[in-house]
Amino acid sequence: MAFKLGKLLGKGGSRSPEKLPGDLRKAVEAWRSSMAPELDEWHYHVRYVVVDIATSGPSAEDGTLLGISAVGVREGAVMPADAFTFDLAADADADAVDRQLMAFLAYSAKAPLVTYHSPFVNSFLKPALQNRLGVNFQPSWVDLGWMLPSLYSDRSVGLLPMDDWLERLGILGQGGGRRDPMTNALMLARLFQMVLVRAINKEILTAERLVEESQATVFLRRNH
Predict the structure, then answer these.
(1) Which domain holds residue 75?
(2) Total domain count for the chain?
């Protein structure tokens, strides 16, 4: 199944957007023309989407995208009804894969995305959306992997695995083990809630400032 998905989502799996079914092509165009939310708003007025993915390998060069899970955070709270999960491995039919990818775009609605190590996650999402739907995917990322040591330097000044932060911040006991992407997304959402509290304490008061801070932190740490 991963091999078939690799053929669909890899470099050889691209196709012209003009060859998409009519309803899917209209959905892509509607997404393209939709307005991104304003990011100069107070955090609690912005919907963030926390994302986790399942892959068949440790990098985009050695694996393929198998699934996407996401949950919304609004007004500082995880919204139980605002959650989606997509299992691309359940059906590697080309049309089904394209529709699940479009469903993810429609669900995220150009909201700022939150994840753990955004370069890794984006390295799978970006080519899949480009190759299958012709979408140039450039979301505003908040990267918890880099933001946590910046905002919680009292707990660690270095990069840590996600489970270490879950333990240090009292969200998960020792030995978390392997989890599915939706469970991971919910765990990340709880970490993000704690990041928001610390960000506000440090006068990072808007989504725009949080995204900028995340981008700066990722750039500085990756280049030193």
Answers:
(1) 2-222
(2) 1
